[in-house]
């Protein structure tokens, strides 16, 4: 999904999905292989042996390799090449998990999004989107999170970086959860800017404030479309959002088509596209737990290139 039209405004931001070349797993592997000095990866768990082996090889080469994981998952993860990889675990108020999916390479390149480090077949077949950018400021923004977890410091409230400038003139806004209303307020604020369209693809959607905001936008004649994961609707997690939005007259869809591996047909996206221009993206589901308890990452930026717009 990389932008290729030279006549359009190009960005250093690149997109990768199951259908792009390279795909998500290939991009993660190539990013690790190209690392020169350090790798810091955030995942709930690591179940992909190819990626784990690449991390292991880089650690043996002498690179600093740190893995920030969920406590419960890290205790039973047999793929970790200990002692080369330091596993660290968050401590949250109440029940919450390390849910960020990101990898920082050489303190200047970041790959982030919705893809877990799953088995190859699961990673290939689950619908996900990852985003890549070269930005030292964004990298250091995430490394502060890793440092706090490594030293077991008391959890800070959600940190927000309103503007992270890129060399090509683009900007990224980023929020980390948990513990603050910053991320939720930011989502509601960006949604309020919608004038024509709002397109949502959300794995788990339960937050009433965002449901109400979408209904309000629909009543103001903004065209709202929502895609939900069928499994989350069927088991009741996203059922209230599905029913409420449908009742309001909003177009709501579930992923009925199965992806390449029919044994794992999840729609795992967590993004929102506003007026085909403002893009919200990251690991953050639209649920109360995600905003208040989980460790998650939400980013926002503008998309100018029409190739990216059509493919997203």
Structure description:
The chain has 312 residues and is an alpha+beta fold. It contains 11 helices and 15 strands. It has helices at 24-33, 49-60, 71-75, 120-125, 136-150, 182-192, 208-219, 230-234, 239-247, 288-292, 306-311, and strands at residues 14-17, 38-42, 64-68, 86-88, 102-105, 109-113, 129-134, 160-165, 171-177, 197-202, 223-228, 251-254, 270-274, 278-282, 296-302. The chain has an 8-stranded mixed beta sheet with strand order 8-9-15-14-13-10-11-12, sandwiched between helices. A 7-stranded mixed beta sheet has the order 1-7-6-5-2-3-4, sandwiched between helices. α1 (24-33) runs parallel beside α2 and α6 (182-192) runs parallel beside α7 (208-219). The longest helix is centred in the middle third of the chain and has 15 residues, at 136-150. The radius of gyration is 19 Å and the shape is globular.
Write the layout of secondary structure elements.
Layout lengths: L13 E4 L6 H10 L4 E5 L6 H12 L3 E5 L2 H5 L10 E3 L13 E4 L3 E5 L6 H6 L3 E6 L1 H15 L9 E6 L5 E7 L4 H11 L4 E6 L5 H12 L3 E6 L1 H5 L4 H9 L3 E4 L15 E5 L3 E5 L5 H5 L3 E7 L3 H6 L1
Helix pairs in contact: 1-2, 6-7
Q: Considering DSSP H and I runs of 4 or more, what fraction of the residues is helical?
A: 25-40%
Widest sheet, order of strands: 8-9-15-14-13-10-11-12
Query: Secondary-structure element sequence?
Result: EHEHEHEEEHEHEEHEHEHHEEEHEH
Give the tally of β-strands. 15
Note the overall shape.
globular
**Poorly predicted runs:** 1-10, 83-92, 259-264
């Amino acid at each position: 999904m990389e932008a290729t039209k030279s006549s359009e405004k190009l960005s250093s931001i690149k997109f990768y999905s199951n259908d792009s070349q390279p795909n998500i797993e290939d991009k993660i592997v190539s990013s690790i292989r190209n690392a020169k000095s350090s790798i810091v990866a955030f995942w709930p768990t690591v179940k992909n042996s190819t990626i784990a082996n690449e991390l292991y090889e880089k650690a043996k080469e002498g690179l600093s390799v740190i893995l920030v994981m969920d406590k419960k998952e890290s205790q039973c993860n047999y793929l970790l090449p200990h002692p080369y990889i330091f596993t660290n675990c968050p401590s949250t108020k109440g029940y919450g998990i390390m849910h960020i999916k990101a990898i920082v390479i050489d303190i200047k390149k970041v790959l982030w999004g919705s893809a877990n480090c799953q088995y190859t077949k699961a990673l290939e077949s689950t619908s996900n989107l990852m985003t890549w950018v070269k930005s030292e400021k964004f990298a250091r923004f995430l490394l502060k999170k890793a440092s706090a977890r490594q030293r077991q410091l008391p959890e800070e409230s959600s940190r927000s970086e309103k503007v992270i400038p890129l060399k090509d003139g683009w900007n990224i806004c980023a929020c980390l959860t948990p513990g603050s209303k910053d991320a939720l307020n930011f989502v509601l604020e960006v949604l309020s800017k919608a004038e024509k369209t709002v397109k949502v693809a959300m794995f788990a959607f339960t937050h009433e404030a965002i449901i109400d905001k979408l209904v309000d936008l629909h009543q103001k004649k903004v065209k709202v479309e929502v895609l939900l994961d069928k499994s989350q609707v069927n088991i009741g997690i996203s059922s209230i959002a599905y029913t409420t939005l449908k009742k309001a007259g909003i177009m709501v869809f579930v992923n009925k088509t199965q992806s390449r591996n029919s044994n794992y047909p999840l729609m795992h996206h967590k993004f929102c596209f506003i007026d085909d221009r403002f893009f919200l993206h990251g690991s953050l589901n639209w649920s109360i737990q995600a905003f208040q308890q989980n460790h998650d990452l939400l980013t926002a930026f503008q998309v100018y290139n029409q190739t990216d717009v059509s493919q997203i």
